[in-house]
Amino acid sequence: MNEVQPALVRNGRPGRGTPRAHWILAAVVVGLLAVGCGSGGSAAPAARTRAYFIAADEMSWNYAPAGRNMLTDEPFDATANKYVQAGPERIGATHTKCLYHGYTDATFTHQLPRPADEQYLGLLGPVIRAQVGDTITVTFRNNCSFPASIHAHGVFYDKKDEGAPYNDGRTGTDKAGDAVAPHQHYTYTWQVPERAGPGPMDGSSVMWMYHSHTDEVPDVFSGLMGPIEITARGKARPDGSPNDVDREIFALFMVLDENTSHYLEAQRAALAKPPAADNAEFQESNKMHSINGYVYGNGPLITMHQGERVRWYVMSMGNEVDLHTPHWHGNTVIANGMRTDTVNLLPATMVVADMVPDNPGIWLFHCHVSDHITAGMQTRYQVLPPVQPGSR
Ligand SMILES: [Cu+2]
């Protein structure tokens, strides 16, 4: 079967803000697929293999690239500067991280550019999408300096593709995906059976996550996390996204505790006046209360149009402080079959919330835990006027 790169066709949304080139590309890819596997172009969904190429790349990540508090439109105050201001004894807003990036193929020479309307994803890895019945392959290359893996939630995997080393009686190649050494690669294969897709109370798609699980705690705090979205059989567009949703937004609420990152010690030692690693104020300064790796609204504005069917996928990871309550100003959502404007997250929980925004404007989207508000776990989203029929 031909393999496709869904990340390239991700924006297939006819008449809904779709870059035309992407839609044409989607049509070409689907056509090639039909020829390649003889499945034809009928409405019945053919099971597909969706091939992703994801590298873990070492890089500098700036939690506050705007350099000011975008929620107040003022310079950072003393509270914010505890976290974002660099100095002889403080790392500040920019940390070394290891992040998942999508690539075009197994040569890992061309990183997939993130379209403008996906820039808000920040430090999250590429969205992995599939439909029930599909097979997902992820060729993973580790460009970071420590062994890493990709461990998926929800989908079906054999032991060799679990991406997590522990005492489970396995040996040899059965442990191949547990720890990919620096500069090595490994291809994970995950099946997408019914039990990976929506249940009786779900909508047309569900959220899972993937993350490194070789040394789970520092791997995740170093930044190795991403979302998975699985759509019900027969309800997916060519890119795997649900055909009854106009726009999808993914958001990670997490106190990224850089004290627990693989890179903390090197960064601490590089300071002009390195404080002790257990210095309480230093430790607090490294706890980045972020949404998709941005603090104080510093990420790109999340945008949508009034009247669109918007599906929010929110998740958390981390520690006992990672109890978060994402709250939308200005509009409401339906989550778990109930109307609300605030949902609950604990580490490694995932919530899907559907919104049809009826209220245009720029609105706050923030964690409602008081300590997290002041530490910067806030951002904004914009509801633009409705898309006029035929305007695109
Ligand atoms: Cu919170």
Give an account of the 3D structure.
By secondary structure, the protein is an alpha+beta fold. It is 12% helix and 29% strand. It is built from six helices and 18 strands. The strands form four sheets. The chain has a six-stranded mixed β-sheet with strand order 10-9-12-16-14-15. It starts with 19 loop residues before the first helix and ends in an 8-residue tail after the last strand. The relative contact order is 0.15. The N terminus is likely disordered. Bound molecules: copper (II) ion (CU). Copper (II) ion binds next to loops.
What order do the helices and strands come in, and which of them pair?
Layout: H1 20-37, E1 49-62, H2 78-84, E2 94-103, E3 128-131, E4 135-142, E5 151-152, E6 185-191, E7 205-211, H3 216-221, E8 225-231, E9 247-257, H4 264-269, H5 280-285, E10 287-291, E11 302-305, E12 310-316, E13 326-328, E14 333-335, E15 338-340, E16 350-355, E17 361-367, H6 370-374, E18 378-384
The structure holds copper (II) ion.
